[in-house]
């Protein structure tokens, strides 16, 4: 528990640093006694998980923080064994079904159903339901989501499900309609800065507001990233200076270089180099949709207003196909090639226009 | 000229077979001169009178027409009446004749009897133009046929009787497969070599004395033979080097059991060239009884052993002719390695008996255990790993392609009328010179009532096209290479070779190739890996975009096929290859590399994932609960690496300020929380460095961590208590290196810490070296 991230994480709804009115609402929800299924969504680093843990603590008290890791083995109907790690307390169970890959439906069907079916024994002292927390729901296959539908209705008496995802668009409609959706937006720049400053104060450090702002910008208001960056800055150099350079995740740097390479030259050879770089990123477990997103973001920096819309359109098209297909590299390269062609044409047209 | 020994025997054989004809021929040659004048007069007359050529030729000699002439009913007019009439005669038959100048005359027809009487019939009523009357010849021929047939039936009991129905139902491949050495289509040299090798066994098997080498100085004798000269002229210079090589092998001395040096002959070559047929024919020819083991038999080690033993050590006693066995192991390249090892063991068995066997080598027949029968192995691929040991001990014979001319000839023999030679050449070419494909194709055409083959028919019938897939590289090459312009062949309506010419043909060709390969996944992978390095001018990148569009399409297609099991969509997959062909094909030879990238990427991804999950698995639950896979990879890990290399002064930890100590504390806590540790590694220079798993400069997570054994919890805790001693030195992270490498700090000044210095292998030189001595 030594990273600032973990050390200064709020553990109760009252201690949350931002979106305080939402915290109050959640508190009311718990006290109201009619606790629904929840779908908590928001960009990464906004504090979804923290909020959920606070909520659980509000529900069950500090006992919920006694966590244990359980290795579960589930046998699929095809006799294939699926191993999955769950984190559980006495009151809740946290699963990431997408760990099971394509077999996540089995996890939903077997694991969650058994948990949901079992009754709480001491319902007098505790709440009469337990909570199943499913993370990364947007990576769940459609099959698994459909398997979830009936479970959610049938075992409402004994079990609540909290879904945690970055976006609702990949959660099917029937599930969305069964849940109370809670959106956790990113904290504003000021909120990030104030969190950083307060953490630094607790550490006995002095953070210049300029640096806080810079960190906030670099992290894209992702609080997790911001805290890590801040700590990295601290390691780099303690008496902070305002114009200190903030370490960034190296895959982002790498991707930026890739984008620059694409913009600087448009030939098949360059495409080949770009392919190598994209492979490298994929190998290091960077999900293809994130690569696509960051790549587009970097490319857009180099584009003119009119081109921007076209590129965005293009990116949307290829990202969709990326989701449909299985070989990410084809789609990423297709996007890159298309961008190259478009960019080249745009530049040539621009040159022609200048000549005449 | 030793190599022709066998040829002579063959000819002997040949002589036996055709004894009757030869006899007749010889007689004719001797005596025909007497009648020659008379006959030639007739012939001349016939030639000028009848424009139609003489009847079908007999295949024996150039004088073939002669014996037949008298049997013709039509003959010259009688000398009494005017032979040639200006106008048609009033009564009787006549024949009208127009000569070259255009004037027409009429010949009177007369009764046969009259003609014959004119020509002084002999006692049998024949004309006596032949020394042997035609009747006798006919009888002899019939007799010969009967004998031959009976022999035939005897020799090949298992064969069907040649009744007409049987004939029709049989495939031509069987019907016209060679039965005698002379009918073999394969290369003469190969045939002879194999035969010769087999003859080397004669000493052992039949107890015959081997002919001494220079026993045949009679090259002249050979040359006299009518059948010899062409072979004599061609072979030696054409196969000079090969002959010399193989000759050497064959001339090698027999071993002490009088067996040839190579106990096994290994025939190899592409399918359809007649390897199996050759082996069978030659074994039979050399007087062996053929025992065949092929891929259809069980070839597990034990069974194989048993069969080899049976075949090589036993002899049939029930059959009419007791002949020694010759084992033919067909399709040996598919046999398991264990079976081949057994075969090798059989070959080398003599070694075990080497000692006592030496003296009684003469009575080798008594020895049951050593191999005394020839074994012929047949394979398609000589370089199968399992065959490697066998290759060294075998007499290797590779099959060259059969010459088209021989095939054409054979086709003619088969009885198929070929309209023109190019047609034959064409069908042969389209069948790729594989007899297996050729004969069925011809039979098919025959079955459709076609008696005449011409180019058009051959082209219009797409029979005999191999559906055999060629290698992936071949396919990629075809896709990326424009066909070279082929010389146009003569003939109207001729299409060019597949793959050349117009777009439509290329389209069909590539489509055919791609769909017959079947491995769409591999193919598209290869296309993807190679297309960017093709030399195609594509400045606007439109072609590349198009190609990628197709790739993404095929990826989607694949996804749908696999997920929904909708295999009807499979037929759209090969079109990818066609697109690539039209986009990227170039006349120069493409350099194609095997597509590794995808596999490599996936395996590396897997190892990364594994590292990550091992790391995650050991992280304590309290931290773990807030840690997703994604957030770990995207945010935490990369920055964590920055965080865990604080700048520490390279001094004794005891000298650290309280602040630094605190920092160190935190570092260790963090590492524990995230299940990181340092692993001690030894560099080639003998220095110990501490590596935080793969230290790559590349993107994020090369430093996937989870490391063995050094800064383990226990050691850390002991350090917290006092000093952490490892080989006497505290390892401080060096600020210069970004993280990964923590070299040994310099250190400890005048503390009581010492090195134990072990030099060499023994403990003899062992002394304590104080740090201050080093400083």
UniProtKB/TrEMBL annotation, chain A:
InterPro entries associated with the record: AAA+_ATPase, DNA_pol3_clamp-load_cplx_C, DNA_Rep/Repair_Clamp_Loader, P-loop_NTPase
Subunit-level organization: Subunit of the RFC complex, an heteropentameric complex consisting of a large subunit RFC1 and four small subunits RFC2, RFC3, RFC4 and RFC5; the RFC complex interacts with PCNA. Forms an heterotetrameric complex with RFC2, RFC4 and RFC5; this complex has ATPase activity but is not stimulated by PCNA. The heterotetramer of subunits RFC2, RFC3, RFC4 and RFC5 interacts with RAD17. Interacts with CNTD1; this interaction facilitates crossover formation.
Segments crossing the lipid bilayer: none
GO cellular component: DNA replication factor C complex; nucleus
Name of the protein in question: Replication factor C subunit 3
Chain's role: Subunit of the replication factor C (RFC) complex which acts during elongation of primed DNA templates by DNA polymerases delta and epsilon, and is necessary for ATP-dependent loading of proliferating cell nuclear antigen (PCNA) onto primed DNA.
Family note: Belongs to the activator 1 small subunits family.
UniProt keyword Cell cycle, yes or no: no
Localization: Nucleus
Gene Ontology MF: a single term: DNA binding
Any single biological process term in GO: DNA strand elongation involved in DNA replication
From TrEMBL, chain B:
One term of GO molecular function: DNA binding
Record GO biological process: DNA replication
GO cellular component, one term: nucleus
Keyword ATP-binding in annotation: yes
CDD domains in alphabetical order: AAA
SMART domains, A to Z: AAA
Gene3D superfamilies: P-loop containing nucleotide triphosphate hydrolases
Keyword set, alphabetical order: ATP-binding, Cell cycle, DNA replication, DNA-binding, Nucleotide-binding, Nucleus
Sequence similarity: Belongs to the activator 1 small subunits family. CTF18 subfamily.
Protein name listed in UniProt: CTF18, chromosome transmission fidelity factor 18 homolog (S. cerevisiae)
Species in which this protein is naturally found: Kryptolebias marmoratus
């Amino acid at each position: 528990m030594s990273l600032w991230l973990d050390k200064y994480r709020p553990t109760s709804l009252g201690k949350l640093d931002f979106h305080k009115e939402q915290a109050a609402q959640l508190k009311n929800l718990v006290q109201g006694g009619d606790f629904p299924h929840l779908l908590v969504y928001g960009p990464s680093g906004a504090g979804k998980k923290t909020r959920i843990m606070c909520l659980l603590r509000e529900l069950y008290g500090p006992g919920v923080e006694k966590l244990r890791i359980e290795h579960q083995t589930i046998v699929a109907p095809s006799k294939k064994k699926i191993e999955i790690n769950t984190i559980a307390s006495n009151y809740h169970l946290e699963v990431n079904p997408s760990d099971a890959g394509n077999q996540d439906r089995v996890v939903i069907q077997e694991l969650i159903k058994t948990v949901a079916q079992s009754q709480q024994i001491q319902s007098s002292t505790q709440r009469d339901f337990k909570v199943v927390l499913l993370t990364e729901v947007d990576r769940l296959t459609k099959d698994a989501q459909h398997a979830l539908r009936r479970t959610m209705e049938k075992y409402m008496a004994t079990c609540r499900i909290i879904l945690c995802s970055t976006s609702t668009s990949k959660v099917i409609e029937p599930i969305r309609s069964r849940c109370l959706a809670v959106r956790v937006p990113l904290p504003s720049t000021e909120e990030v800065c104030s969190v950083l400053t307060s953490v630094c104060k607790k550490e006995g450090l002095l953070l210049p507001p300029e640096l806080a702002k810079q960190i906030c910008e670099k992290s894209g208001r992702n609080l997790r990233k911001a805290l890590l960056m801040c700590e990295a800055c601290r390691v780099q150099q303690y008496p902070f200076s305002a114009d200190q350079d903030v370490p960034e995740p190296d895959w982002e740097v790498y991707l930026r270089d890739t984008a620059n390479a694409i913009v600087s030259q448009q030939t098949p050879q360059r495409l080949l180099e770009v392919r190598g770089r994209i492979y490298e990123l994929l190998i290091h477990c960077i999900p293809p949709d994130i690569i696509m997103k960051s790549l587009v973001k970097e490319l857009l920096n180099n584009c003119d207003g009119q081109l921007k819309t076209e590129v965005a359109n293009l990116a949307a098209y290829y990202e969709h196909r990326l989701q449909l297909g299985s070989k990410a590299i084809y789609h990423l390269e297709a996007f890159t090639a298309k961008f190259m062609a478009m960019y080249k044409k745009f530049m040539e047209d621009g040159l022609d226009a200048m000549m005449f | 000229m030793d190599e022709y020994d066998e040829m002579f025997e063959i000819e002997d054989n040949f002589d036996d077979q055709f004894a009757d004809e030869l006899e007749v021929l010889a007689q004719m040659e001797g005596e025909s001169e007497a009648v020659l004048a008379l006959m030639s007069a007739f012939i001349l007359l016939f030639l000028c009178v009848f424009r139609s050529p003489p009847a079908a030729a007999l295949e024996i000699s150039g004088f073939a027409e002669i014996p037949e002439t008298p049997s013709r009913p039509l003959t010259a007019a009688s000398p009494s009446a005017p032979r040639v009439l200006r106008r048609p005669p009033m009564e009787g038959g006549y024949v009208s004749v127009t000569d070259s100048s255009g004037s027409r005359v009429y010949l009177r027809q007369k009764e046969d009897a009259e003609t014959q009487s004119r020509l002084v019939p002999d006692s049998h009523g024949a004309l006596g133009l032949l020394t042997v009357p035609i009747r006798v010849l006919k009888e002899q021929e019939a007799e010969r046929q009967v004998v031959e047939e009976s022999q035939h039936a005897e020799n090949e009991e298992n064969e069907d009787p040649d009744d007409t129905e049987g004939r029709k139902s049989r495939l031509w491949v069987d019907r016209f497969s060679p039965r005698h050495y002379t009918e073999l289509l394969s290369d003469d040299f190969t045939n002879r070599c194999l035969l010769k090798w087999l003859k080397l066994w004669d000493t052992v098997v039949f107890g015959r004395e081997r002919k001494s080498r220079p026993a045949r100085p009679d090259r002249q004798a050979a040359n006299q033979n009518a059948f010899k000269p062409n072979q004599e002229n061609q072979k030696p210079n054409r196969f000079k080097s090969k002959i010399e090589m193989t000759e050497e092998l064959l001339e090698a001395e027999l071993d002490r059991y009088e067996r040839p040096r190579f106990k096994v002959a290994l025939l190899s070559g592409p399918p359809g060239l007649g390897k199996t047929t050759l082996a069978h024919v030659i074994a039979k020819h050399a007087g062996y009884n053929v025992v065949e083991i092929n891929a259809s038999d069980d070839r597990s080690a034990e069974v194989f052993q048993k069969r080899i033993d049976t075949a090589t050590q036993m002899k049939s006693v029930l059959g009419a002719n007791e002949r020694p066995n010759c084992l033919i192991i067909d399709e040996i390249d598919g046999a398991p390695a264990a079976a081949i090892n057994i075969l090798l063991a059989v070959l080398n068995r003599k070694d075990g008996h080497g000692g006592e066997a030496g003296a009684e080598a003469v009575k080798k027949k008594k020895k049951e255990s050593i191999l005394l029968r020839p074994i012929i192995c047949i394979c398609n691929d000589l370089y199968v790993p399992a065959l490697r040991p066998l290759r060294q001990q075998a007499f290797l014979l590779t099959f060259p392609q059969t010459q088209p001319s021989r095939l054409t000839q054979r086709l003619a023999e088969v009885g198929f009328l070929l309209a023109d030679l190019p047609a034959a050449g064409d069908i042969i070419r389209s069948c790729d010179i594989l007899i297996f494909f050729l004969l069925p194709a011809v039979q098919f055409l025959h079955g459709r009532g076609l008696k005449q083959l011409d180019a058009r028919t051959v082209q219009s019938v797409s029979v005999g096209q191999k559906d055999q897939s060629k290698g992936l590289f071949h396919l990629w090459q075809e896709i990326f290479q424009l066909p070279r312009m082929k010389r146009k062949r003569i003939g109207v309506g001729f299409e060019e070779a597949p793959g050349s010419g117009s777009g439509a043909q290329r389209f069909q060709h590539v489509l055919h190739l791609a769909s017959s390969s079947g491995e769409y996944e591999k193919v598209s992978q290869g296309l993807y890996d190679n297309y960017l390095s093709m030399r195609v001018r594509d400045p606007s990148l439109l072609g590349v975009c198009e190609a990628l569009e197709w790739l993404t399409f095929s990826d989607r297609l694949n996804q749908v096929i696999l997920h929904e099991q909708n295999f009807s969509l499979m037929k759209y997959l090969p079109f990818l290859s066609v697109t690539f062909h039209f986009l990227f094909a170039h006349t120069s030879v493409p350099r194609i590399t095997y597509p590794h990238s995808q596999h490599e990427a996936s395996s590396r991804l897997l190892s990364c994932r594994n590292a990550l999950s091992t790391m995650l698995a050991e992280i304590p639950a309290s931290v773990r609960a807030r840690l997703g896979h994604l957030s770990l990879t995207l945010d935490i890990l990369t920055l964590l690496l920055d965080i865990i290399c604080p700048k520490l002064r390279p001094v004794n930890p005891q000298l650290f300020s309280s602040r630094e100590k605190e920092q160190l504390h935190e570092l260790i806590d963090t590492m524990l929380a995230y299940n990181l540790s340092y692993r001690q590694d030894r560099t080639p220079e003998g220095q110990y460095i501490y590596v935080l798993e793969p230290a790559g400069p590349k993107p994020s997570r090369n430093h996937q961590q989870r490391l063995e054994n050094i800064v383990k919890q226990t050691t850390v805790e002991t350090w917290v208590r006092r000093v952490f001693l490892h080989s006497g030195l505290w390892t401080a992270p060096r600020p210069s290196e970004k993280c990964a490498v923590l070299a040994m700090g310099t250190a400890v000044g005048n503390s009581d810490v010492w090195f134990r210095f072990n030099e060499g292998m023994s403990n003899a030189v062992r002394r304590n070296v104080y740090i201050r001595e080093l400083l």
